[in-house]
């Protein structure tokens, strides 16, 4: 009987984990410009599977990072605030652009259903 409960708890845990790690297909906030960009990204048949939007907090404000995981692309990731103001470009080096380490609570905001990115 104990094994049945252990198995049941394990199944519930795995199901909850898989559900929480699911794809973010639809936007969660009503930001018109962001929703329009997501709709445009969904239409990209060639590179759409590489596109994603991350969100986090930078200097006390919510930011949106437009990134991709394209293995053959040399690209930059613009960082916008909620009003669609370009704050700069993401950097992993000190003193250049917006350093990724200075952004807190980074989460996936959106990625397509057929995403090639591993988060």
Topology, please?
Elements: H1 2-20, H2 32-42, E1 51-58, E2 61-68, E3 78-81, E4 86-91, E5 98-99, E6 104-110
Parallel strand pairs: 4-5
Antiparallel strand pairs: 1-2, 1-6, 2-3, 3-4
What does this structure look like?
By secondary structure, the chain is α+β, with helices and mostly antiparallel strands. It has two helices and six strands; from the N terminus they run ααββββββ. It has helices spanning 2-20, 32-42, and strands at 51-58, 61-68, 78-81, 86-91, 98-99, 104-110. Strands 5-4-3-2-1-6 form a six-stranded mixed β-sheet, with no helix packed on it. β1 (51-58) and β2 (61-68) form a beta hairpin. The chain is globular, with a radius of gyration of 18 Å.
Largest sheet: 6 strands, mixed
Give unreliable regions as ranges.
Answer: 1-27
What is the share of helical residues? Answer: 25-40%
* Widest sheet, order of strands: 5-4-3-2-1-6
What sort of overall outline do the alpha carbons produce when their principal axes are compared? globular
Structural class computed from helices and strand pairing = alpha+beta
Strand element count: 6
The SSE order reads HHEEEEEE
Give the overall average pLDDT. Answer: 80
Strand content: 25-35%
Total of helices: 2
Cα distance spanning the termini: 37 Å
Q: What is the CA-based Rg, rounded?
A: 18 Å
């Amino acid at each position: 009987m104990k094994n049945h409960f252990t198995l049941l708890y394990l199944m519930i845990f795995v199901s909850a984990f898989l559900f929480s790690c699911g794809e973010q297909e639809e936007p969660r906030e009503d930001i018109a410009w962001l929703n329009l960009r997501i709709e445009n990204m969904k239409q990209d048949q060639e590179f759409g599977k590489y596109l994603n939007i991350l969100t986090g907090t930078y200097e006390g404000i919510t930011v949106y990072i437009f990134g991709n995981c394209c293995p053959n692309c040399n690209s930059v990731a613009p960082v916008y605030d909620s009003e669609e103001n370009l704050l700069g470009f993401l950097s992993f080096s000190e003193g250049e652009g917006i350093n990724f380490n200075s952004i807190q609570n980074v989460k996936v905001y959106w990625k397509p259903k057929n995403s090639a990115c591993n988060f």
